[in-house]
DNA sequence: CATGCGTGGGC
DNA sequence: TGCCCAAGCAT
């Protein structure tokens, strides 16, 4: 049972009115009142890019993808390597592999038309509970309980939920469900997320501008920023490794395609040693005149990495995928782009 | 249900 | 600087 009994209709009407006046203009979004007016392909593409990703980071990628592959059929027909390279730098690369798998499923099994129900959307690769609900609500204006991190935060504050996440998730989801109706469901979902993103922010919430402050138990408590409570996180281990920057006589760099599963799966990368918890000497891929180019630091979700960089000139070896340096850099995940920059820097002084 | 999976920005 | 955080999903 929630600690208070909210006036659902009043909260809904005030938040929708706030959204009508304050909705963010985003590249993939229809103005308030026009939910359902956007191509479901663009809604889906934006939602996948926005998973655990800020709007500022996702926006240029969205514009590039939407221009380069204007329809789901175009994306489905694109070569894997081009899509992975276009995703480079956005992170969580399983999303890009699932994006392609989903586009091909829609093109192949659904006649190029996105399904319009939550249940059938949920069956698509890379589409989970949040994304299925978001596409159903935003693209098709169907009632759906759209619960992302913003909505969890708004609910946790509105009802001053004292249970920490992730344990509180089922309760927060039930609380959010009480507000879902068939009136403007797409705008409701976006209104809640916009409120969470711009007013009911994680740090320093702007309660003075919040249309729901009068109903908010978190605001009444005097410390709304305390919600949602969080379980303590485990410490991040550090790993060490070596990346080898191998350059041929024409200035091309040796790359390798990484296996589909696991860290940076499916992406191009520099040849590397194992990344283990102890720093130790690593045997280079072939004997030669290796130069130490220093190290780069990079922090992944669950570990920090010290990556030492060593460089060598080499004859063109068939075992690698050789790319001009600029092309290589643009196709690489950030950790390898940093290592490549480090490895090529000494060449400036030769 | 816990874990693995990126990155850049803010303080 | 070192943490925390941001429109989650798959296994």
Automatic annotation (TrEMBL):
Name listed for the protein in its UniProt record: Adenine DNA glycosylase
Residue ranges of every copy of the HhH-GPD domain listed in the record: 49-198
Gene3D superfamilies to which the protein is assigned, alphabetical: Helix-hairpin-Helix base-excision DNA repair enzymes (C-terminal), Hypothetical protein, domain 2, Nucleoside Triphosphate Pyrophosphohydrolase
Reaction catalysed by this enzyme: Hydrolyzes free adenine bases from 7,8-dihydro-8-oxoguanine:adenine mismatched double-stranded DNA, leaving an apurinic site
Gene: mutY
InterPro entries for the chain: A/G_AdeGlyc_MutY, DNA_glycosylase, Endonuclease-III-like_CS2, Endonuclease3_FeS-loop_motif, Endouclease-III_FeS-bd_BS, HhH-GPD_domain, HhH_base_excis_C, HhH_motif
EC number: 3.2.2.31
Highest taxon listed in the record's lineage: Bacteria
One Pfam family it belongs to: HHH
TM annotation in the entry: none
PROSITE patterns xrefs: ENDONUCLEASE_III_1 (PS00764), ENDONUCLEASE_III_2 (PS01155)
EC class name: hydrolase
Co-factor requirement: [4Fe-4S] cluster
UniProt cross-references to SMART domains, sorted A to Z: ENDO3c, FES
This protein's record includes keyword Iron-sulfur: yes
The protein's role, per its UniProt record: Adenine glycosylase active on G-A mispairs. MutY also corrects error-prone DNA synthesis past GO lesions which are due to the oxidatively damaged form of guanine: 7,8-dihydro-8-oxoguanine (8-oxo-dGTP).
Family assignment from sequence similarity: Belongs to the Nth/MutY family.
Keywords: 4Fe-4S, DNA damage, DNA repair, Glycosidase, Hydrolase, Iron, Iron-sulfur, Metal-binding
PANTHER family xref list: ADENINE DNA GLYCOSYLASE
